[in-house]
């Protein structure tokens, strides 16, 4: 019987080969679908809130990205996870370290989170600066903006940002979260060089 089994392995029938190929294909489809479903879940607001309910979620829910007159909402992953395949994977790998930091007690309380807020914010600002604020530009871009519908200061700042090749995060730090050690600042931070040029144009 054992000899017959090994003989079959050496010379399998076409039906057996077809069955193996079919089962492998189905297994691959189910595995990939399950993996993608799990990955998609890690992009949901529910998943992010499971760790951040006591620190950044209240800030986010007080921002225009959560609730506004148009009803267009950006969730956590819209700003913090690139849409492109390879940048998304890179971000997910880095995020795994952040989840590890939470569960090992480095930032598992509001007080610990606040102690590390500065370094975490700086990392995220650096990432957005490096990719030209791609996550912002998925929804906002200069080419589609009607400056005439904006307030005067916004028109001036956006025009200067275009001239100087600035990116969104240069001015809009703190747009959905408190700035480190500047919790009262919610509307963003304008770099000094842009502010001076705006004043000069008045």
Automatic annotation (TrEMBL):
<feature type="binding site" description="axial binding residue">
    <location>
        <position position="140"/>
    </location>
    <ligand>
        <name>heme 3</name>
    </ligand>
</feature>
<dbReference type="InterPro" id="IPR024717">
    <property type="entry name" value="NapC/NirT/NrfH"/>
</dbReference>
<feature type="binding site" description="axial binding residue">
    <location>
        <position position="172"/>
    </location>
    <ligand>
        <name>heme 4</name>
    </ligand>
</feature>
<comment type="similarity">
    <text>Belongs to the NapC/NirT/NrfH family.</text>
</comment>
<dbReference type="GO" id="GO:0009055">
    <property type="term" value="F:electron transfer activity"/>
</dbReference>
<dbReference type="InterPro" id="IPR038266">
    <property type="entry name" value="NapC/NirT_cytc_sf"/>
</dbReference>
<keyword id="KW-0408">Iron</keyword>
<feature type="binding site" description="axial binding residue">
    <location>
        <position position="177"/>
    </location>
    <ligand>
        <name>heme 2</name>
    </ligand>
</feature>
<feature type="binding site" description="axial binding residue">
    <location>
        <position position="80"/>
    </location>
    <ligand>
        <name>heme 2</name>
    </ligand>
</feature>
<keyword id="KW-0249">Electron transport</keyword>
<feature type="binding site" description="covalent">
    <location>
        <position position="48"/>
    </location>
    <ligand>
        <name>heme 1</name>
    </ligand>
</feature>
<dbReference type="Pfam" id="PF03264">
    <property type="entry name" value="Cytochrom_NNT"/>
</dbReference>
<feature type="binding site" description="covalent">
    <location>
        <position position="168"/>
    </location>
    <ligand>
        <name>heme 4</name>
    </ligand>
</feature>
<keyword id="KW-0812">Transmembrane</keyword>
<keyword id="KW-0349">Heme</keyword>
<feature type="binding site" description="covalent">
    <location>
        <position position="139"/>
    </location>
    <ligand>
        <name>heme 4</name>
    </ligand>
</feature>
<keyword id="KW-0813">Transport</keyword>
<dbReference type="GO" id="GO:0019333">
    <property type="term" value="P:denitrification pathway"/>
</dbReference>
<feature type="binding site" description="axial binding residue">
    <location>
        <position position="98"/>
    </location>
    <ligand>
        <name>heme 1</name>
    </ligand>
</feature>
<feature type="binding site" description="covalent">
    <location>
        <position position="136"/>
    </location>
    <ligand>
        <name>heme 4</name>
    </ligand>
</feature>
<dbReference type="GO" id="GO:0020037">
    <property type="term" value="F:heme binding"/>
</dbReference>
<dbReference type="InterPro" id="IPR005126">
    <property type="entry name" value="NapC/NirT_cyt_c_N"/>
</dbReference>
<feature type="binding site" description="covalent">
    <location>
        <position position="76"/>
    </location>
    <ligand>
        <name>heme 2</name>
    </ligand>
</feature>
<feature type="binding site" description="covalent">
    <location>
        <position position="51"/>
    </location>
    <ligand>
        <name>heme 1</name>
    </ligand>
</feature>
<feature type="domain" description="NapC/NirT cytochrome c N-terminal">
    <location>
        <begin position="13"/>
        <end position="182"/>
    </location>
</feature>
<keyword id="KW-0479">Metal-binding</keyword>
<dbReference type="InterPro" id="IPR036280">
    <property type="entry name" value="Multihaem_cyt_sf"/>
</dbReference>
<dbReference type="GO" id="GO:0046872">
    <property type="term" value="F:metal ion binding"/>
</dbReference>
<keyword id="KW-0472">Membrane</keyword>
<dbReference type="InterPro" id="IPR051174">
    <property type="entry name" value="Cytochrome_c-type_ET"/>
</dbReference>
<feature type="binding site" description="covalent">
    <location>
        <position position="79"/>
    </location>
    <ligand>
        <name>heme 2</name>
    </ligand>
</feature>
<keyword id="KW-1003">Cell membrane</keyword>
<feature type="binding site" description="covalent">
    <location>
        <position position="171"/>
    </location>
    <ligand>
        <name>heme 4</name>
    </ligand>
</feature>
<dbReference type="GO" id="GO:0009061">
    <property type="term" value="P:anaerobic respiration"/>
</dbReference>
<keyword id="KW-1133">Transmembrane helix</keyword>
<protein>
    <recommendedName>
        <fullName>Cytochrome c-type protein</fullName>
    </recommendedName>
</protein>
<dbReference type="GO" id="GO:0005886">
    <property type="term" value="C:plasma membrane"/>
</dbReference>
């Amino acid at each position: 019987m054992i000899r017959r089994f090994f003989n079959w392995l050496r010379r399998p029938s076409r039906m057996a080969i077809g069955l193996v190929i079919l089962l492998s294909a189905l297994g691959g489809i189910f595995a990939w679908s399950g993996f993608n479903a799990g990955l998609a879940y890690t992009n949901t607001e529910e998943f992010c809130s499971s760790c951040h309910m006591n620190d950044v979620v209240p800030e986010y829910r007080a921002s225009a990205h959560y609730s506004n007159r148009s009803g267009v909402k950006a969730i956590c992953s819209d700003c913090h996870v690139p849409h492109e395949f390879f940048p998304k994977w890179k971000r997910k790998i880095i995020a795994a370290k952040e989840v590890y930091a939470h569960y090992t007690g480095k930032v598992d309380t509001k007080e610990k989170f606040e102690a590390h807020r500065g370094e975490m914010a700086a990392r995220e600002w650096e990432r957005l600066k490096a990719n030209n604020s791609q996550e912002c530009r998925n929804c906002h871009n200069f080419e589609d903006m009607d400056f005439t519908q904006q307030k005067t200061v916004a028109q001036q700042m956006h025009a200067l940002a275009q001239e100087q090749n600035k990116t969104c995060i240069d001015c809009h730090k703190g747009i959905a979260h408190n700035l480190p050690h500047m919790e009262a600042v919610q509307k963003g931070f304008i770099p000094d060089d842009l502010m001076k040029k705006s004043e000069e144009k008045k």
